[in-house]
Amino acid sequence: MDMMKGGGASSASKAAVDARTLVAHVLAVAATVLVLLWCIHFRGGLALRSSDKPLIFNVHPVLMLLGPIVLAGEAILCYRSLPLSRDARKKAHLALHAAGLAAGVLGVYVVFKFHVESGIPNLYSLHSWVGIATISLYAFQWVAGFLAFFFPGASPATRRRTLPWHAVFGLLLFVLAVGTAQLGFLEKLTFLQGAPLHLPKYGAEALLVNFTALVVLLFGIAVVLATVTIDATRYNTVM
């Protein structure tokens, strides 16, 4: 009977994890579609070079969402969601984070390019300060993980001691990236609602931006919930 109960608990736990990862995947797709809809339909499109400078800026939110948030979130989830060997999942984790970091670095470059070409000062807002700190720590985390777990690779004992810290620090960085995005959505919407555009506060675009930010926040929550282990049996007590 105990073995049957244990098997049932294990199946229930796996089903809960699968449900959480599925929700996270759906939210990742929704967030990506929404930010593309905003930047292409409402803001006019994307361009790395253009005389219409806001088109250059539009690349920034797309890359920063895809990189340090969506791809990073999928990298965190891949150990639970990919039906592959542990070694294959480890390589997928590395590759997804590398792609996320590359997108994030390009996204930071694009916003600096937009500011310089538009005559706007750099690094004057909390969003920019936290953003630079986040992408810098993300790069440090990736390099440290590569050196410790891939090449040249630390000793098995060192890897065992490092792994919990690597996982916790990575999850904290992901949460920081989601928080930075919330600041970015708020800052951009505030600018759009000011002069000279005076975007309506209850217009379709304003609602879309707020809803996109909400979906990104929910994605962040879903990734955290899918990653942490919640075992109620550990806290059962005899009443």
UniProtKB/TrEMBL annotation:
Keyword match Membrane: yes
Keyword tags: Electron transport, Heme, Iron, Membrane, Metal-binding, Oxidoreductase, Transmembrane, Transmembrane helix, Transport
rRNA processing is among the record's keywords: no
Domain Cytochrome b561 span(s) in chain numbering: 23-228
Domain of life: Eukaryota
Recorded topology in the membrane: Multi-pass membrane protein
Transmembrane segments: 21-43, 63-82, 94-116, 128-151, 163-186, 206-230
Cellular compartment(s): Membrane
Pfam family, one: Cytochrom_B561
GO MF, any single term: oxidoreductase activity
GO CC terms of this entry: membrane
Cofactors required: heme b
InterPro entries: CYB561/CYBRD1-like (IPR043205), Cyt_b561/ferric_Rdtase_TM (IPR006593)
Major localization class: membrane
Function: Two-heme-containing cytochrome. Catalyzes ascorbate-dependent trans-membrane electron transfer by utilizing a concerted H(+)/e(-) transfer mechanism.
Protein's name according to its UniProt entry: Putative ascorbate-specific transmembrane electron transporter 1
Organism: Dichanthelium oligosanthes
